């Protein structure tokens, strides 16, 4: 069998996190009742006129500058004409001839090292509505809430060669957009969607094969499966001496197979022409410079700083910077408690554990940094046991309680009353003559049993080191 090379390019649609739609004042909030976030403009009523949301242009400029794109300082909108039930105007306002951004790149990590994936263009456009298929009634209904939600479409060059490279590229884009604050990029809510253009060719050939486009991909797992499935399908056709048809296909992740939707259109099929209702956009040098200066510290820069400034391992630095929100929480806690390594350890173990156990996304973690910093300080000063601190932090994580007040209120502060500790040790030794006899006989393992019993009796309010020291002193008296 011949060896084949996979050629992949992506069209990534990113919903922008503006409060209102691209051409009207309707809300972009996700999850509203069907057709409640609509008006004559976004439902395509005759005579309604679009008015461009300036924030959409700003967000597109942020995204373009962050992905090393050149900016078209004179750009305009075009009409992409097609009929579909969720497209109320029978055209989509997009950009073909003069997109806002072009010729950029992002750098990804691959098994072979760093690789640049080129971005052909990035343009602004409006989203379509959503078809809801009612199998019970055997009909389809249309929800126009999403119609007019602002998008940027990021069109890559066909530079990717595997599913792993595609996922690395998408993860890099998602992280970049989230750091910029231009989108939450939640695939499950459709705010980041990818269409995969894929072809195969005999290894060593310079000629591109016939490509297909796959839609309906709403998770990284589905994208990886679709790429592998389509690659195998195309190779099988070529090995049988048949041709690959240029078409749009829909991937079914449950069946792990794709099926043809329609022939793949070219730009000429959409009869693009300049939108007559929207004037051209002029972007000044000053505006570009202002946005450039406001770009945040991105993940790679932040992770490198953590290693240099805080002395954290590379792995910890990458995990802590995966979310801009979580990184900001960590940095504030580290600054307040004055111990970045201890703060990092707490985030890497306890924060991530609770996020996983409770199914909480990083952006939803909402405790006050001061509350965790106070708790870490009390652990350092041996005012609260590590075991109790973990239980208290769960309350901080869930309810954002004041850790210091909670410890005082529930009597969880470590007791320095040596008289109480001595009497507790004496009583527990008396209540356990068998283990005491083994301890007196030199069986050191029994020491752990007694420390555990004493700590339990003291309800975690004793310092383990103090408990062990006092226990050894009492045992010596009984020899």
Automatic annotation (TrEMBL):
Its EC number is 6.3.5.-. It comes from the Bacteria. One of its GO terms (molecular function) is transferase activity. It is an enzyme of class 6 (ligase). Keywords: ATP-binding, Ligase, Nucleotide-binding, Protein biosynthesis, Transferase. Residues 328-475 form the Asn/Gln amidotransferase domain. Pfam families: GatB_N, GatB_Yqey. Belongs to the GatB/GatE family. GatB subfamily. This is Aspartyl/glutamyl-tRNA(Asn/Gln) amidotransferase subunit B. It comes from Blautia segnis. Heterotrimer of A, B and C subunits. Allows the formation of correctly charged Asn-tRNA(Asn) or Gln-tRNA(Gln) through the transamidation of misacylated Asp-tRNA(Asn) or Glu-tRNA(Gln) in organisms which lack either or both of asparaginyl-tRNA or glutaminyl-tRNA synthetases. The reaction takes place in the presence of glutamine and ATP through an activated phospho-Asp-tRNA(Asn) or phospho-Glu-tRNA(Gln). PANTHER family: GLUTAMYL-TRNA GLN AMIDOTRANSFERASE SUBUNIT B MITOCHONDRIAL AND PROKARYOTIC PET112-RELATED (PTHR11659), GLUTAMYL-TRNA(GLN) AMIDOTRANSFERASE SUBUNIT B, MITOCHONDRIAL (PTHR11659:SF0). One of its GO terms (biological process) is translation. It catalyses: L-aspartyl-tRNA(Asn) + L-glutamine + ATP + H2O = L-asparaginyl-tRNA(Asn) + L-glutamate + ADP + phosphate + 2 H(+); L-glutamyl-tRNA(Gln) + L-glutamine + ATP + H2O = L-glutaminyl-tRNA(Gln) + L-glutamate + ADP + phosphate + H(+).
